[in-house]
Amino acid sequence: MTKVPVLTAAQVLLLISNILLEPFRTMAWRSVCLGLEPSALVGLQWGDVDFLAGCLKIQRGVVCNHVDRAKNEYREAPLPIDPSLVAMLERCREKTLWKKPADWVFAPPYFERAEPYSPRHVAEDHLWPAAKAAGLGEKIGWGTFRCTYSSLLRELRVDIMVPQELMRHSDIRTTLNGYTDSYSNDMRNAHEKVAKELRIQ
Questions:
Q1: How far apart (Å, rounded) are the C-alpha atoms in residues 19 and 5?
Q2: Angle between helices 24-34 and 142-155 (to 10 degrees)
Q3: Backbone angles phi, psi at 48, to 5 degrees
Q4: pLDDT for 70-111, tens place per residue?
Q5: CA atoms of 45 and 58, how far apart (whole Å)
Q6: In Å, what is the CA distance from 134 to each residue of 13, 85, 128, 142, 195?
Q7: Strand, helix or coil at 114?
Q8: DSSP classification of residue 124
Q9: Higher pLDDT residue, 71 or 142?
Q10: Of 24, 39, 140, 154, which one is least surrounded by beta carbons within 10 A?
Q11: What's the whole-model pTM score?
């Protein structure tokens, strides 16, 4: 199995600076700052986002335009999002044609009806060229962002239970055996540490 590369904070900034178009830059920020799987990223609908509370729910995943419910209860728990990411989403909503609660957050403007972007096509058309332009190689993708997020949480010495919940793993052996409901302060503080480390503007 090929090892998924992990980026430093500086490399993340360099990579995303080479993604010139929206909403692809926001997709990349959201992926690396929340550790979202690509199916969950494109599965976001505007009704999942609570702008006032600064959180969202991962309620579904989309693979090849097939929609499935979230795999476990961890994936449906509210996920805190940094104010900078809330602002990015607000700008996306202002510009998109699709604003209803059941509309996809990341939907192309040229379809007759709202459909989510394909993560594979976004990676091929935007992530890989940006990574190559940044001198990071051609195989940087969504898995890289998720592993980078997990690595940053470890570097920031966040309690292991918190990354388990932020990464939405049902078994701590996927992230080590236990569960605490640390949403609110612990989860939000951990997420904001990552966002601060990446110096989101």
A1: 19
A2: 40
A3: -80, -15
A4: 765 555 677 888 888 899 999 999 988 888 999 999 988 766
A5: 9
A6: 10, 23, 10, 16, 21
A7: coil
A8: I
A9: 142
A10: 154
A11: 0.76
In degrees, rounded to 5, the angle at the alpha carbon of residue 64 between the alpha carbons of residues 59 and 69 is 20
> Could you give the domains of the chain?
9-197 (1.10.443.10)
Q: Is the pLDDT of residue 58 over 70?
A: yes
Q: What's the CA dihedral at 56, 178, 4, 82 to 10 degrees?
A: 30
Q: Is 74 helix (H, G, I), strand (E, B) or coil?
A: helix
Cβ-count burial of 103 within 10 angstroms (0-12 exposed, 13-18 middle, 19+ buried)?
A: middle
Q: What is the pLDDT, as a whole number, of residue 9? A: 86
pLDDT score of 96? 87
DSSP string across 128-182: HHHHHHTTS-S---HHHHHHHHHHHHHHTT--THHHHHHTT-SSGGG--------
Using pLDDT thresholds of 50, 70 and 90, give the confidence band for residue 178: very low
Q: How far apart are CA 44 and CA 38, in angstroms?
A: 10
Cis preceding linkage at 23, omega within 30: yes
3-state secondary structure 1-19: CCCCCCCCHHHHHHHHHCC
- Look at residue 25 in the predicted model and tell me its pLDDT: 93
CB 197 within 8 A of CB 9: yes
